[in-house]
Amino acid sequence: MGGFGGLGMGEAVRRGLYHRRNWSHRQLQYICLSRLTATLLTSILAVVLGSLQIGYHTGNVNAPAKIIEEFFNHTWRARHNQSMPDHSLTLLWSLSVSIKDFGALLGSLGVKYVADAYGRRNSILIVNCLSVVGAGLMSASKACQSFEVLILGRLVFGLFCGLVMSLNPLYIQEVSPTHLRGAFATLNQVSFASGILVGMVAGLETVLGTEHHWAMMLSLSIVPALLQYLVLPFCPESPRYLLINRREESEAEAALLRLRGSSEKVFSELEEMKDEAAHTHTGVTIHEFFKKGRYKQPIIIVLIINLGSQLSGFNAIINYSTRVFQAKFDQAKYLTLGVGAVNLTFTLVAFFLMERAGRRRLLLTGFISIAVCNLLMTIVDSVVHLVPELGSMQVLLVFCLISAYELGPGPISWFIGAELFDQPARPIAMAFTSMLNWGGKFVLALLFPPLLKVCGAYVYLLFMVVAMVAFVFTWVRLPETKGRTFDDIAEEFRGAEGIPLHNKAGFNTFP
After folding, report:
1. Which of 27, 377, 483, 505 lies deepest, with the highest CB count within 10 Å?
2. Which of 44, 243, 245, 169 is nearest to 253 (CA)?
3. Which residues form a coiled coil (predicted)?
4. Which helix (H) or strand (E) holds 35?
């Protein structure tokens, strides 16, 4: 092959004769596409069925909220011969919405244990049973005439959310080729956004969001859960887990061969894993994770990016968009459906841009756009009662905010932790990521309604400040991880308390 000096692609990659910066776009594209195999694609698609279920239960409670609240009231009336007070009903519904996020926060605590004890793939299969149990409880609540069963079901499902939204990126990042790692990790968010849209459609009164069918609607996530049980057992375990965690080189090589399809492609990747293994210890405790100097800066980066993503307003809009729109539009439920469609569209845009623009550029663009949208939301919401025509502008701003979130902060916040930490610390980092994400969602779901009542339109200024802090910190501290091996990224933090703002590759500046 002329492009590789007559050596052939596999030999050129093996000898490391061509750094990524020296490849032409056509050569790089050829190498990336040639690494795709049916096993790799099947493994990733099977794994993201979990995030599809989570998205479904995020979107399906929005539109039929009044119907399910009436079920709560009817159950209370049957027990106590009187209706539930309005403030109690509002509190109970807020608890029902947010309890999933609280369960996810608890579930995050178990990520390190299951990921290291059972492996990445097997852990996903084990925790999938929580989804089946949770959906079954939610669906059975109507037949049991018990809103407590519905709340318990959402709590159990929340445990599944906290575990799987960390395990999924962990598995995807460890089985993906380096130059497609970010794009494939974004597929987890694409599946999540797809689930939100499907859930929103299912929750419409014209579909399943009715008094007679809402319980069946809550059970439909069992379908992808069972499909995952049928497909994922036939997919390989993470080769990186097998080699570095279990020291099983032959099994790791066999798994990598299934994923890459060619022994030529396996050699260099296996050597890179061995290099990383030589630089890492067999395990890291939680105490060591927070104490070691090499992890301090990555921890702060993960903290700021995740809290910036979750507390910048997106989750408030997803959870309460129907009620926000209802004050101004008759067809609020269909505008909410538009929220889901825009959400999915820009997640797909992020998928195609992830390996072109890089993580830094997408995060910076997303955070500054979110801040501007929140500022404009404050202005428009403050004067919309004087100029009703601005109601349409408010809808447009909501769509723009969602677009900005899914362009970078949404998908990247879930997997950046897996890229910044070495193999022993990666499960703890993903547990930490999950706790921050779900903790932020829980706090916002619980506090947004009262904050909206107290602060009115100025609540969006709080979101703007959060987004600006995240933007500034990302600009100053986040290194670019696009196209770099795990060991290369980890090298930036080894033996150092801080991150150099500039280095020989110039990855801390815009290209």
Report:
1. 377
2. 243
3. none
4. none
**Among the listed residues 363, 389, 392, 370, the one whose alpha carbon sits nearest the alpha carbon of residue 317:** 370
CA distance 300 to 322: 35
What gap in Å lies between CA 58 and CA 51, rounded to an integer?
A: 10
Contact in structure between 398 and 321 (CB atoms under 8 Å): yes
Question: Taking the alpha carbons of 235, 238, 239, 243 in that order, is the dihedral positive or negative?
Answer: negative
- Is residue 484 within 8 A of residue 178, CB to CB? The reply is yes
Alpha carbon distance 373, 288 (integer Å): 40
d(CA 295, CA 313): 29
Is 286 within 8 Å of 116 (Cβ atoms)? no
Answer whether 405's CB lies under 8 Å from 394's CB: no
Q: What tokens appear for 494 in the block?
A: 């080894």
> Band of the pLDDT at 118, cuts 50, 70, 90?
very high
Residue for token pair 């050596």: 7
| d(C-alpha 494, C-alpha 387), whole Å | 57
- Residues 123, 125, 128: CA angle, nearest 5 degrees: 105
Q: What are the DSSP calls for 274-334, one per residue? A: HHHHHHS-S---HHHHHH-HHHHHHHHHHHHHHHHHHTSSHHHHHHHHHHHHHTT-TTHHH
Q: What is the DSSP letter of 242?
A: I
Contact by Cβ (8 Å): 312, 467? yes
Distance CA 28, CA 19 (A): 10
Dist CA 160 CA 220 (whole Å): 16
Element (H or E) spanning 139, and its range? Answer: helix 120-144
CA atoms within 13 A of residue 265's CA, in its CB half-sphere: 19
CB of 387 closer than 8 Å to CB of 162:
no
CA 164 to chain CA mean position, Å: 10
For tokens 């797909």, what's the residue? 348
Q: pLDDT of 27-73, one tens digit each?
A: 444 444 445 889 999 999 999 999 999 999 988 887 788 888 889 98
The DSSP secondary-structure symbol of 421 reads: S
Closest to 217 (Cα-Cα) out of 231, 228, 206: 206
